Amino acid sequence: MCGIFGYTGKRDDAGSVVIDGLKNLEYRGYDSWGVACREEKGILVAKDIGKISAVESREFGHTCCLALAHTRWATHGGVTPANAHPHLSRDRTIAVAHNGIIENHEALRKELMQKGYVFLSQTDSEVIPHCIEEEMCAGYPFAEAVRRACLRFHGRYAILAMHEPTGMLVGARTGSPLIVGVGDDGYYVASDIPAFLEHTRTVQYIDDGETVETDGASIVFRDIATGQERQKREVRITWTVEQAQKGEFPHFMLKEIMDQKESIARAVNQDEDAIRRVAEAIRSAKGTFLVGCGTAHKACMAAEYFFSVVSEHHVNVCSAGEFKLYHHFLAPESLLIVVSQSGETADVLEAMNIAKSKGSKVLAIVNVEGSSISRAADYTLLINAGPERAVASTKGLTGQMSVLLLIAYALKHALHEGKTLLLETGALINDMLNPRYVDRISAIASRIKSHEDLYIIGKSWHYPMALESAIKIQEVSYVHAEGFAGGELKHGPIALIEQGTPCIALVGNDEVTADIINNATELKARGALVIGIAPERHAIFDEWLKTPDAAAAQPIVSIIPMQILAYELAVQRGKDPDMPRNLAKSVTVK
Ligand code: M6R
Fold it and tell me: What is the pLDDT of residues 244-260, one digit of tens each?
């Protein structure tokens, strides 16, 4: 959570560079923003509550070559201008932007206050510039003072600090992302690549436990613990500027839903030997565990059915945040498969640490190349969905499910059968995503948009898709949506159904079709408005959204109209689907 972006180099418009770049990271947090520019008169800071997208970048830093900026997702202290970053040292020569949590901030604050430091905010972050200043007062140069200050901090964080007298920009990373963009005109340091994509596609990754220091002309990486220099290679990234922009679409969420016309094929385009090796690792593992959070967890749940139905192989699925006590089941021969779009989710990283502490191997299925999760894993499969900017994960999910289904087929020694099915599914999705289809969903949204409760049912692999549909609708439209396994209704939830309550049934052409139609009939008998998402019309449906018949890839198809419905409900209820309240794209705190 929180976005950080700093620049130093030959350009003299550093203030607008960092503000414009941060607009591309606003998905990381958007309750407040701030910028610090190194001007002739010293460090100038501007900060406020609200979205950085509304800020006119030309107003800032037109004569400065060093600046840093921040978008905040509040953890410690309310959403106020004073709590917005950057925070300054007492002598106003050091400005700091921070992502993550300084867990021992209360003790540090107390210690610093006893020494006369005054705090202007309620944040944990404000201890950082004061600790750096204290180290400098003890005689250490700026970069070394940042490193020494980091030794005093507990927790997972990324820090970016600038020093007015020397013009140095210094970053530090322990658990939250920070990446260097290497440009012809200087160095860009950001929480994520889209911040500097229009300036450079050459990156250097800062690893956990490292600092980076630059004066704009050269760069040095160091180990935080020892101060030893670390060598880094430059990596060319494949994402393009166009992929990271919304183009003609009104929102990133809609663009990313539409990207699924092509992204399934990209996900499936994997090295076949690598997929077979993964399948072999699952076959020989003493226990395979699949974990993820939120939408990625629902991909894992769908995969449990893929492995059961396609390859008759048992896997264990768990939300990453609940994995802690599974360590009793782990051994060096166990395999943990972690699934994450961003590759930065804190609970997933913690699950990986648990598995590693037991000597188990970790496979990561991620979208973001070079992310913390992919770098910490023993092996990574990329889903190649391209940048996902909307908070609601859409193409990330279908890419994850596609790779997991492909692995299930490889486990059955039928990789090509799986690949053909998924490529055909991609083509079916391409046909399905036409303007008439979106209009039809829009009409259904308009019929149900005034209801505050909405239920979705599914069976088999459509059960996790019912849960996922509910997440999508909740997070962007704020409608109270809940997903259930169809068979669970009569064990409690059916009591919620009243005359006209909208209920959506996810239906396929499979061995549970008759069961889920029965469940929908039970809802209808209690007065529900039944909306069927299905390849065929059933008499029980009041509304029917046709989906193509995609065999084992059916859940990948069925979730797409639900994504559009969530989007339409948000827009028709006047909400911004790209920036839902209280949420951020990368959940880098536990
Ligand atoms: O980046 P990750 O896939 O690890 O993120 C996991 C969840 O935070 C994420 O899927 C979240 O649930 C989405 N906002 C759902 O749309």
Answer: 788 899 999 999 999 99
Would you say 545 and 533 are in contact if contact means Cβ atoms under 8 Å apart?
A: yes
**Which SS3 state, helix, strand or coil, does residue 302 take?**
helix
Quote the tokens at residue 379. Answer: 């092996």
Digit-coded pLDDT (tens) for 60-73: 766 899 999 999 88
Under 8 Å between Cβ of 349 and 324: no
d(CA 200, CA 478): 38
150 catalytic? Reply is: no
Distance from C-alpha of 66 to C-alpha of 86, rounded to nearest angstrom? 14
At residue 106's C-alpha, the angle toward residues 102 and 111, to 5°, is 110
Q: Shortest CA distance to 127 belongs to which of 106, 148, 144?
A: 106
Query: pTM for the full model?
Result: 0.84
Q: Report whether 152 contacts 131 (CB < 8 A).
A: yes
Please indicate whether residue 393, judged by its CB atom, sits closer than 6 Å to ligand 1: yes
Instruction: List, as one string, the DSSP characters of 445-467.
Output: HHHHTT-SEEEEEE-TTHHHHHH
Residue to mutate (ligand 1; options 291, 341, 404; most atoms within 8 A of CB): 341
Report residue 241: phi and psi, to 5°: -60, -40
**Cα torsion 378, 382, 386, 392: sign:** negative
Nearest to 368 by CA among 348, 343, 393: 343
Which residue's CA is the nearest one to ligand 1's atom 14?
Answer: 392
Q: Is 588 in the pocket of ligand 1 (CB under 6 A)?
A: no
Give dist(CA 538, CA 519) in Å, integer: 13
Angle between the N-to-C axes of helices 294-311 and 462-477, in degrees from 0 to 180, rounded to the nearest 10: 170
Where residue 385 falls (left for φ over 0; alpha for ψ -120 to 50; beta otherwise) is alpha
- Give residue 534's pLDDT band: very low, low, confident or very high (50, 70, 90): very high
DSSP string, 190-252: ESSGGGTTTT-SEEEEPPTTEEEEE-SS-EEEEETTT--EE----EE----TGGGS-TT-SSH
The torsion angles phi and psi of 205, rounded to 5 degrees, stand at -90, 130
Residue bearing tokens 């210094």: 170
Query: Quick one: CA dihedral 531, 532, 533, 536, positive or negative?
Result: negative
Q: Ligand 1 within 6 A of 587 CB?
A: yes
Res 128: pLDDT: 97
Q: Please, are residues 526 and 500 in contact by the beta-carbon 8 Å criterion? A: no
Q: What is the dihedral of CA 101, 370, 256, 403, to 10 degrees?
A: -120
DSSP-derived 3-state class of residue 300: helix
- What is the dihedral angle through the alpha carbons of 245, 478, 366, 5, rounded to the nearest 10 degrees? 50
CA distance 354 to 352: 5
Residue ranges and CATH numbers for the domains of the chain are 3-243 (3.60.20.10), 246-433 (3.40.50.10490), 446-582 (3.40.50.10490)
CB contact at 8 A, 531 and 542 = yes
Which two structure tokens, joined as six digits, stand for 543? 């509304």
Rounded CA separation 504/529 (Å): 8
Task: Report residue 381 as tokens.
Answer: 């499969």
Catalytic residue flag (residue 585): yes
